[in-house]
Amino acid sequence: MAIIGTYECKIDAKGRVLVPASLKKQLPGIGDGFVLKRSVFESCLELWPMAEWDRMMSKIGKLNPFDKKNDAFIRRFMAGVKNVEIDDAGRLLIAKDLIDFAQISKDLVFSSKVNIMEIWDKKLYEATLEVDDFDFGELAQDVMSNISFDE
After folding, report:
1. Sign of the CA dihedral 6, 117, 137, 148?
2. What is the pLDDT of residue 81?
3. Cβ 44 vs Cβ 102: under 8 Å
4. E strand or H helix at 47, and its extent?
């Protein structure tokens, strides 16, 4: 199930973010909670619905922990991972270490990434989208041209 949309929000001094109602309606298994973690590639956070996290953990759990590369990957992938919930007031609490990692100030953006959400500082998010030397058309061709659309 895909989550759709980009949502601008504000974070308070305690690290609480009011999750937009239109986003909350899309989030699967809201009562099951979520996992909040550092992104692998970007200075942002990832909000994983618990079912999606469990699917990923079943894959990662099959890695041989006695392989040095696997061990290093697992350690870094799991760094800063937090169980989080959306409270009765519709707020999500982001821990200070994750706020610091993502350089989140007052304004942030929830951005859909298929089955998870990314959480960005608004200025960093906009800067990522405005890169001048980046050819999205070329990237789209490289990534999507080998996918079969016959299914």
Report:
1. negative
2. 97
3. yes
4. strand 45-49
In our burial notation (b when 16+ CB lie closer than 10 A, e otherwise), range 88-101 reads eeebbbbeeebbeb
Tell me which long-range contacts 56-62 makes (C-beta under 8 A, separation of at least 24).
none
Direct distance between the N- and C-terminal alpha carbons of the chain, in angstroms, rounded to an integer: 17
Distance CA 16, CA 77 (A): 24
The predicted model scores a pTM of 0.91
Residue 118 near residue 39, CB atoms below 8 Å: yes
Reading phi first (left if > 0) and then psi (alpha if -120 to 50, else beta), residue 29 is in: left
Residue 125 CB neighbour total at 10 angstroms: 23
